[in-house]
Amino acid sequence: MIRWLIVVVLALVLMSGLTAWLRRFGFGRLPGDFEFRAFGRDWQLPISSTLVLSMIAALVARFI
């Protein structure tokens, strides 16, 4: 259980660090990505970007 928690935390840290770099390639601005303001803060739900990155990761893992 602790291993999965560590993997999730590392993935979140990695994705938050790469967000600015991924936005240059259009991730986070795809048609299924939602941005809204609530409680005085900007919130992002990158649903389609997550799906695209997941498919890319699955393809890379399949060929390695």
Automatic annotation (TrEMBL):
It comes from the Bacteria. Keywords: Membrane, Transmembrane, Transmembrane helix. InterPro entries: DUF2905 (IPR021320). It holds the Pfam family DUF2905. The chain crosses the membrane at residues 43-61. This is DUF2905 domain-containing protein. It comes from Variovorax paradoxus.
